[in-house]
Input
Amino acid sequence: MPVAAAPDAPHVSPDVPLARQGKSPQAGLLPALPTPRSRPVSHGSFNPLPSCPIRDLAALVRIENAERGLRWMWTQKDKQKTLGTADMANLLRNVARRHVNVDEQHQRHLDKWNDNFAVRQPSGMTAKNRDRLRPLEDPDTLRRLLTLPDRLFERGVRGGDSLTTALEREDAIALAILIYCPIRRKNLFGIHLEHNLQRMGDGRAFLVFEAGEVKNRRRIEFALPSHVVTMIDAHLKSRCPRLCPSGTPWLFAQRDGTAAGNTNYLCTKLKRRIAREIGLTINPHLFRHIAAKIFLEAHPGQYEIVKRLLGHTALSQTLNAYAGFEAGSSVRLFAAVVEKARRT
Output
């Protein structure tokens, strides 16, 4: 971010709405700042004034520095609000409030810019995710996905003791958990064998995440099918030392066993595995949508159960995302009701 060396930027009153009435939001985001002169961008930076290094957080959130940094990001995107600029405005606001403790007027500036740069997130499922779910309308394709964990694990067992087969078994277990327990990717790849995998002593096992471990602060619990528990136990007995040292407490661990595996790396690995095996583009988060799709097609209208299954805080969140998933099933059920009425 460009950093001004001198505090000579024009002052913007926090009492003046940055998105003025009668103008587009983009036109009024930072009305008191002159548009910086156009000049080539070098190494990703733009310096309308002589710059100096950021020596502390207070310098980062100074009014003139924050304004000019946001102005630069805004003009780089043709004066369109973007998630990147919105995230930066939000970061500056939070740093000022929580770490620098700026005065009230200073904070009001940053709060106002955060509000005006905010990008409204679309409700419901994205078109990209709907497109990725469409191939699963074919029963055979859906069956290939749902049975992939079993095929992968069996192949990993038959292949003997190697890094390749150990990774196949690891991916098989991740897929099996996602199919039966549609949890978020951070929870999946952070599973701790003592804290999150709770065994009952009779062979049953539950996947449990306390409220503090979950995005929406709601405790979640899933009973693992017996064959998935068997897969996990077999993998734990054979994964060392290929994947991690003995005694590693995470199900998906870093190779040195000191922490849970990197979420982004494991997500990419699993996505590539699915594409290679069955030719579909499916990331771990999409399994939450797949769970809703499968359930609603079998039980049209049962949104409350889907809400609980996915841990949504509000039913409206579930309805926005999945309304219409069960349209085909609803039509078939209605046709069956009509046929029954005709025969009576």
Summary: The longest strand covers residues 205-209. Confidence is low (pLDDT under 50) at residues 1-47. The longest helix spans residues 83-100.
